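Q: I'm writing a short methods note and want an example of a predicted protein-small molecule complex. Could you take the sequence and the SMILES for S-adenosylmethionine and return the bound structure as tokens? Please keep the output block clean; save any remarks for afterwards.
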Amino acid sequence: MRIRDPPGAPVTRGVGRQQTYSAAVGVSSDQAPAYGSPQAAIAQNSLWYHSIEVAPGVVTPGVFDLRPIIARLPWPDVRGRRCLDVGTYDGFLAFELERRGAAEVMATDIADHEQWDWPLHLRARGPEYLRHVAGMKRGVGFEIARRLLNSTATLDEVSVYDLDPARVGSFDVVVCGSLLLHLRDPLRALAAIRSVCGGWFLSTNQVELGLSVRHRRRALVRLDGVSDLAQWWLPNAAGHRQMLQAAGFEIERESRIYSVPFGVAHLAHGRSPRGLAPLLARVATGGVGVPHHAVLARPGTA
Ligand SMILES: C[S@@+](CC[C@H](N)C(=O)[O-])C[C@H]1O[C@@H](n2cnc3c(N)ncnc32)[C@H](O)[C@@H]1O
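A: Understood, no commentary inside the block.
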């Protein structure tokens, strides 16, 4: 069976509705396929964003591979906690929360490409182009991985901007990975995250490496919004910290700058760019990939 968006399968539409595996693949629960093997299940998803080990030695062919850097994040103790992963994609961070002993994990994402904060010139290229860039719909990879991992994490379709304690409750730990740079209004998103965060907030974000190294204390942000990368605000590490502070969080700990490695599905996978700049980047971040920074924060009293 090919996973696709069948006509009249609105189960996954609408903000805040929990998405089941069957809804993600567009079949009713009694029709849900029994996969012969993890490899057969993985093949049901045409695009994997995350490299996830779903069975011993079996890894989804992701665009990015967070496995080598996951221990470098400033994790809080999540054991026994209610946790939220915002903008989960295939769920790598949600499953990591579970692996670390979270009592309950909710993951959230938008329903489809239409809800991205597209820069105007990209949206003007039309839905076909947006689908090509952002993929068909969210949740398919998450549900396949969830089943293979026997995970009890749930996936809700709710934009970060719409997070609200009346809708989703409050969480001991909230994680948000590599999303702020894609948002036109990251501070509004952070305010919404703060409204549902009762304990710790772990934020990871792409950062400008040069600005981070040259200006360690000065908060700077580069504005994009015009390139084809669907990115808006790219801070340096100090800027990432200050965005959280501006949204009412107090910083507890932070990581050094690290590179998120490319997965096998990334065009740059396996390439080792030569030259002084890539060499310096590798030294500064400890690897090849996209420069990131992680901050652990708590909601302040103000
Ligand atoms: C770059 S991926 C990061 C995936 C994952 N969090 C990680 O750290 O690897 C960004 C994710 O945020 C989701 N996203 C985009 N806009 C969103 C919004 N307004 N609310 C919630 N999620 C959003 C995308 O669908 C995608 O799954």
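A: Remarks, as requested: The first strand starts at residue 17 and ends at 19. The mean pLDDT is 87.
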